UniProtKB/TrEMBL annotation:
Official protein name in the record: Actin-interacting protein 1
Keyword terms: Actin-binding, Cytoplasm, Repeat, WD repeat
Listed PANTHER family: WD REPEAT-CONTAINING PROTEIN 1, WD-REPEATCONTAINING PROTEIN WDR1
WD repeat residues: 54-95, 186-227, 230-271, 316-357, 526-557
Lineage, opening ranks: Eukaryota, Metazoa, Ecdysozoa, Arthropoda, Crustacea
Family designation: Belongs to the WD repeat AIP1 family.
Length: 601
């Protein structure tokens, strides 16, 4: 018995309006580095479906940066803690952990020899600190000169070494060292300075601020050389990044554009209009090799095209909020996932490529996903069921109003069934044909054909309610007792079994049509509430995912044996699970990540 994680479709950067995102990149220019919640995502730039995740921080991670050597990554979190960890081994062995600041770290940089690290942020009376990577010992000198939190820092990559910082006091500061000593401040900006970056050749550094201005300074003396544009952007500048040859600069702004600037002339070379919606604000950018990348407020990662500025070459979409549900298309080629923010993403199972469903959705958490024939249905906490055209990848405009908040939906032969906190309703031809009021909270639903259509509904009353559906009428057939609220139910593909899970950590299989317990057993190896269950296509195995971050594979042939996948989604509960075939399982979690596993009993 074995399992293996074969793919990770990573979450997007976690964004917040008005808060810049700091991106990192490896020295070879092949890996993109960014933070999402408690995790650090390492994503292949060329093939974005290849990713790795570091999950050892206990609270929100703000940023991570590669050492110039490429052997280590330093990540920093909301409490001012930094962790330095190995990039070579897949286990990412921890080298050191330090607490250089007493508050959130907003930026950090490595010295060119990978021996020292400078972190900046909010701190308690201290906004910056330089320390040795190996020992954590403070590097002599003092990084004073700012009166408010420091937002950005960068280390001059060539000798003589310098540090440049940008702060909420609307100033940039310039330091000589090490040991570092304050040389001067620059008051050219009139609002927060959000990004300072040195050119790769070390001859200049640039600063961008919320006043929409970008200034270029001499890298050795700190003298102002010029301002780019006048101002460079109509909105605040969130990030600047140099071209590899140090001749051009890429900027990202809240005015929903990115721009490329020629440093010698000070003129704009290219403008990238990114859209007109609020979520098209550009929160970060980075220029690595031939790739120009930016991050939108939506979390989308845009691959900018210098030859066609009007449209990105590629846009990486997905989720940057917890995933709530998943559904697999009947041909097993497409996977649909929904988020707590109301977004729905469709994934190509073979490649990991994805796209966001457009059109007017629910606007908030999606609580149900079901595929019936050639249409995909979603249910949201706006008390409605909506339809998606899977070909055009857009909401069709069809909306069926429900009497209360839906908890889950399931496909019927010729429609869907929805369970809400107050009713069970059947929808056919985009209209309600049957509704049954319930006095308990409906939590989950599944349907099958056994001597007619049967519907199983799990409730907050610790019962599974079995109904028959005939002549547009729901008739209760029997109830099955559990020791906790029933969180998910699924009929097997061969219509011979029903599996259910509950908050009491149990997974129970019932044999149809009698609904007797299979082998009179209950599977109970989870450590917390079980959220979801799924049948393999041959109805011989069950997969379950839980609040304890684990996935367990259960065998119908060998009921006393199971495969436990511990920390399937570290620090995040498993919220959805499905079988791609008899050997592959796909799972989703509150970490916004989709993972594929192979299992072999």
């Amino acid at each position: 018995m074995s399992y293996n994680n074969v793919s990770i479709w990573a979450s997007l950067p976690r964004t917040q309006r008005g808060q810049p995102i700091v991106l990192g990149v490896d020295p070879k220019g092949k890996k993109l580095l960014y933070a999402h919640s408690n995790s650090v995502i390492i994503r292949d730039i060329e093939d974005s479906a290849i990713a790795d995740v570091y999950t050892e921080h206990s609270i929100q991670v703000n940023l991570a940066k590669y050492a110039p050597s490429g052997f280590y990554i330093c990540s920093a979190d909301q409490h001012g803690k930094v962790r330095i960890w190995d990039t070579i081994n897949p286990e990412h062995i921890l080298k050191a952990e330090y607490q250089p600041l007493g508050g959130p770290v907003r930026d950090l940089c490595w010295s060119p020899d990978s021996q020292r690290i400078c972190v900046v942020g909010e701190g308690r009376g201290k906004f910056a600190h330089v320390f040795m990577m190996d020992t954590g010992a403070s590097v002599k000198g003092e990084l004073s000169g700012h009166t408010k939190a420091i937002n950005s820092v960068d280390w001059k990559p060539t000798r003589p070494f310098r540090l440049a910082t940008g702060s909420e006091d609307s100033k940039s500061a310039f330091f000589e060292g090490p040991p570092f000593s304050f040389k001067c401040t620059k008051g050219d900006h009139s609002k927060f300075v959000q990004s300072v970056r040195y050119s790769p050749n070390g001859e200049r550094f640039a600063s961008g601020g919320f006043d929409g201005k970008i200034f270029v300074y001499n890298g050795t003396s700190g003298d102002l050389e010029k301002e780019l544009g006048g101002p460079a952007h109509k909105g605040g500048v969130y990030a600047v990044s140099w071209s590899p040859d140090s001749k051009q600069l890429l900027s990202a702004s809240g005015d929903k554009t990115c721009k490329v600037w020629d440093i010698d002339s000070g003129d704009m070379v290219t403008e990238f209009p990114m859209g007109n919606e609020l979520e098209d604000q550009q929160m970060s950018c980075i220029w690595v090799g031939n790739y120009l990348l930016s991050v939108s407020l939506s979390g989308f990662i845009n691959y900018l095209d210098l030859d066609n500025p009007s449209k990105p070459k590629k846009i990486i979409k997905g989720h940057n909020k917890p995933i709530t549900r998943l559904a697999l298309s009947s041909d097993k080629n497409s996977l649909y996932t929904s988020g707590i923010d109301g977004t729905v993403t469709v994934w190509d199972v073979a490649t990991g490529n994805n796209d966001r469903i457009s059109g007017k959705g629910h606007g908030n958490s999606v609580s149900g996903l079901a595929i019936m024939g050639d249409c995909v249905y979603t249910a949201g906490i706006d008390d409605s069921v909506k339809a998606i055209d899977p070909v055009e990848k857009v909401y069709t405009g069809t909306s069926i109003s429900l009497g209360s908040q839906p908890k889950m939906i399931a496909a019927l032969d010729d429609g869907i069934v929805a369970v809400t906190t107050k009713e069970i309703c059947v929808i056919q031809e985009d209209r309600k044909v049957c509704s049954l009021d319930i006095a308990w909270d409906g939590l989950c639903v599944s349907a099958c054909n056994v001597d007619g259509q049967e519907i199983a509904v799990g409730g907050g009353d610790n019962l599974i309610h079995i109904y028959t559906f005939t002549s547009n009428t729901l008739t209760e057939k029997k109830t099955l007792q559990h020791l906790g609220p029933v969180t998910d139910v699924k009929y097997s593909p061969d219509n011979k079994y029903l599996v259910a899970c509950d908050t009491n950590r149990k997974v129970v299989v019932y044999t149809l049509p009698s609904y007797e317990k299979f082998n009179k057993i209950e599977w109970g190896f989870h450590n917390a509430r079980v959220n979801c269950v799924a049948w393999s296509p041959d109805s011989l195995m069950v997969a379950s995912g839980a609040l304890d971050t684990m996935i367990i594979i259960w065998s119908m042939k060998q009921p006393n044996k199971h495969i436990i996948i511990k920390n399937a989604h570290p620090q995040a509960q498993v919220t959805g699970i499905s079988w791609l075939d008899s050997e592959r399982v796909v799972s989703t979690g509150h970490d916004g990540i989709v993972k594929t596993w192979t299992v072999n009993f």
